[in-house]
Amino acid sequence: MRDSLRRLEDEVTTCRRCPRLVRWREQVASERRAAFRDETYWGKPVPGFGDPDARLVLLGLAPAAHGGNRTGRVFTGDRSGDFLFEAMWRCGLANVPASIRRGDELRLRGAWVTAAVRCAPPANKPTAQERDNCLPFTERELALLGSARAILCLGAFAWNAAWMLRSRIEGDPPRPRTAFGHGAVAPAERLTLLGCYHPSQQNTFTGRLTKQMLDDVLQLGMELAGLPAS
């Protein structure tokens, strides 16, 4: 299974299916932000990472242009990731409270972090076709993460993508979807979905998502996934 995850990572990082995303991610990596002008940007699709025996999967929207597109790891090197990894550390899902680059000392316990779209999109808005081009990677990823029992969806885009993924994996019959909301739960035979406001600065700076709210939803996700509390 670990070998299969590595092979999938190789496929993800060499993908060029979406011309608009390829142009944007490479343009950002070439021009760079002033604060990171001396760094070499990743500039490729970003694979998921974490514990291969994860029971809880955290699904985001896409890598940030100067976050994951720079560091090569989703939610690493940006403010959203700072907020998220500190909460995961408080809940016992991470061994350290911060992560600044791919290959640093961060290790996850019982958790896997990935994204619905693997390339940084302009204005953080991938198209429906770009999402659909990427979903097969995540579908295969979830199939390989055989211990996974819950998906924590970070934002409405991830929630909608997770419904599509779960239908493919579990063959869900047509039924009304549970509306996205912070703390919304959609049970299933294998993969229960749990909603969470995205840890973007827009949400964390305005108080729409507080540290306590994120801690509480992570604890609920651990419970739904059958992970012991730290």
List the helices and strands and how they pair.
Elements: H1 2-13, H2 19-31, E1 49-50, E2 56-60, H3 68-71, H4 79-90, E3 111-115, H5 128-144, E4 150-154, H6 156-170, E5 185-186, E6 192-196, H7 201-206, H8 211-225
Order of SSEs, N→C?
A: HHEEHHEHEHEEHH
**What shape does the CA trace take?**
globular
What CATH calls the topology is: Uracil-DNA Glycosylase, subunit E
How many domains is the backbone divided into?
1
Q: Structural class of the helices, strands and pairings?
A: alpha/beta
Q: What is the gist of this entry?
A:
With 230 residues, the protein is α/β, with parallel strands linked by helices. It has helices spanning 2-13, 19-31, 68-71, 79-90, 128-144, 156-170, 201-206, 211-225, and strands at residues 49-50, 56-60, 111-115, 150-154, 185-186, 192-196. The chain has one domain (2-225): Uracil-DNA glycosylase-like domain (Uracil-DNA Glycosylase, subunit E, 3-Layer(aba) Sandwich).
